[in-house]
Structure formats: C-alpha cells, structure tokens
Amino acid sequence: VQLQASGGGLVQAGGSLRLSCAASGSIFSTNAMGWYRQAPGKQREMVAVFTSGGRTNYADSVKGRFTIPRDVAKNTVDLEINNLKPEDTAVYYCNLNQLRLGVLYSYWGQGTLVTVSS
Fold first, then answer.
1. Partners of 96 in the beta sheet?
2. 113 phi, psi to nearest 5 deg
3. Using CA atoms, how far apart are residues 35 and 21, in angstroms rounded to an integer?
4. What dihedral angle (degrees, nearest 10) is formed by the CA atoms of 72, 91, 26, 69?
5. What is the radius of gyration, based on Cα positions, of the chain?
6. Minimal CA–CA distance to 111: which of 96, 90, 81, 97?
7. Predicted confidence (pLDDT) per residue in 56-72, tens digit
8. How far apart are CA 105 and CA 17, in angstroms?
9. Using alpha carbons only, what angle is made at residue 38 by residues 71 and 25, rounded to the nearest 5 degrees?
10. Cα separations (Å) of 25 from 1, 3, 21, 29?
11. What is the pLDDT of residue 3?
C-alpha cells in the first residue's frame, strides 16, 4: 500500500488550505483513513480520522475548522483546513489502517508541510 499526499504550503493565519491523499495497492474494503500531524518538538497527533465504521473523529483543537472528505471508491481522503492558526504549523501525514487476518497494518504517506504565518 502506498499513500501519496499533497497540498501543503505557506498560508497566512485565517486562510484556508486543502490537503489530498490517495491510497493505492492492496486496500481492503474495511479500513480507516485520516490525517495526523507533527509540529516541531512535539509528538505526532491525530487530526481527523474517517473510521472503518463510517464515523469521523476530530481533535478538539480543529473541530469546526477542519473537515475530512473521503471518497471510499477512489481510496482518497482530503483535509479541508479553514481559519488556519499559527499553531496548525506542522508536517501533516496521511494514514491508512486496515485489518488482515486479525493483524492491524498501518501505512503512512510521506508528509506534507503546512506553515501558517501570523
């Protein structure tokens, strides 16, 4: 499985950005896709996830500002980011988790940098 992420860049505070992620390879119908981020000097954290059960989970810090459109048929997941804040500056990673014979497999994209200037 490969994940290709794109869409990062430099944005002013208050602006918007859309990240895209496409998965390819051996992808099962039941999986979870989402976005994580890692700011300098901090641990990677969940931003938004589209679960295998069809629910969306958001980190409290992004609720109301981020949405995670997903096209299950195309195996893509985007991240729409509005009202960006300097604290949103981070490398954003696309993630796919899927179960196979009781084993959880986790795949990561290469990361795309989002920089928010104040």
1. 33, 107
2. -85, 130
3. 9
4. 0
5. 14
6. 90
7. 999 999 999 999 999 88
8. 29
9. 35
10. 4, 9, 14, 12
11. 96
